[in-house]
Specification:
Layout: E1 2-3, E2 8-9, E3 14-16, E4 21-23, E5 28-29, E6 34-36, E7 41-43, E8 48-49, E9 54-55, E10 58-60, E11 69-71, E12 74-76, E13 81-82, E14 87-88, E15 93-94, E16 99-100, E17 105-106, E18 114-117, E19 122-126
Parallel strand pairs: 1-4, 2-5, 3-6, 4-7, 5-8, 6-9, 7-12, 8-13, 9-14, 12-15, 13-16, 14-17, 16-18
Antiparallel strand pairs: 10-11, 18-19
Organism: Bacteroides muris (ex Fokt et al. 2023)
Protein name: Acyltransferase
Pfam families: Hexapep
Length: 142
């Protein structure tokens, strides 16, 4: 697994096929997150992944007579914030600076700087493009 500098990955993260996962610098991955690398996951810089988020890159094809699988790389660009209990499905790209609200299910691409919520996630607003922060500098245990 490729992990950038200054990342904070909490305990109890379920990582599947880590050799197909890339995480950029200054990212935070909170507890009880699922990172399913079987179809590939690319996470940019300064991404905040809250508790109990599920990022799936492989799923069963419900129309397949043999119950085969579909996969697709999940791309999460820089400065994205995935709030608690978000689910991201295979093949989705979440654009730079997007915010996905708690318990949302992302079934299709989300444009940069969008705020999306719901099941399926729908865009409800835009985020200001003044992002300069760096994550991964928690001082809790100094």
């Amino acid at each position: 697994m490729k992990i950038g500098k200054h990342c904070a990955i909490c305990r109890n993260v379920d990582i599947r096929s880590p050799y197909r996962i890339e995480i950029g610098e200054h990212c935070t991955v909170n507890k009880r997150v699922v990172l399913d690398g079987r179809g590939g996951v690319k996470i940019g810089k300064n991404v905040d992944i809250a508790q109990e988020v599920n990022i799936w890159s492989l799923q069963h094809d419900y129309n397949s007579p043999t119950y085969s699988t579909n996969s697709g790389i999940v791309v999460i660009e820089d400065y994205v914030w995935l709030a608690s209990r978000v689910t991201v499905l295979p093949g989705v790209t979440i654009g730079r600076g997007a915010v996905i609200g708690t318990c949302s299910v992302v079934t299709k691409d989300i444009p940069p700087m969008s705020i999306a919520v719901g099941n399926p996630a729908k865009i409800i607003g835009r985020r200001d493009d003044c992002l300069e922060y760096e994550l991964g500098h928690r001082g809790w245990f100094k």
